[in-house]
Amino acid sequence: MRHAETTWNRENRLQGHSDLPLSPVGEEQARRVGAFFASRHLRQLVTSGLRRTRQTAEAILAGNGHRLIPAVDHELREIHLGVWEGLTPQEIDAQFAGAYQRWKEQPSTVTIPQAEPLEAFQQRVRRAMARVVSQLKEGDHAVVTHGGVIAMILADVLGADYDAILRRLRLDNAGITALEFGQGRPHVLWVNSTVHLD
To answer: Is residue 78 among the annotated active site residues?
Structure first.
């Protein structure tokens, strides 16, 4: 799932590796995610190391009542967005000659100063998911991560272009995407469910 809301999410500021806590709205979203998982026996909970994901994971455990200790995997962090972090799309376009609009259309063609290369991001997300999958057992496992990471995972699972997935999928704060792993390729059960937030 994607982490719950931060103040920068509300202000539409790009976060990347910037380490912000949940906003009051995000804390409530995280509680509702916890309530969603309350009746599920989680075998494993993995989170990126950033505060917004760790706080969301802690709320899941509080609502679930399990004594799991979340496994922290720093390779599940969002892509590092360099000098764009902390800026709104309008500020980026004003400072970088419309670069955000170009990125929105085809992210892989835009080089962001001091940012993580897309290929390096893709490789670390694949390594992190390979670790998660290698530890799967029968039952439910939860991963709390970031929108760009979820888009990258879905692109791999669906054999789709990352640019197209990022452009065409909406991944809300505290939205849950479900994958089923068994024999053969994984299956996508649902994407970005937010019914638990209603």
So the answer is: yes
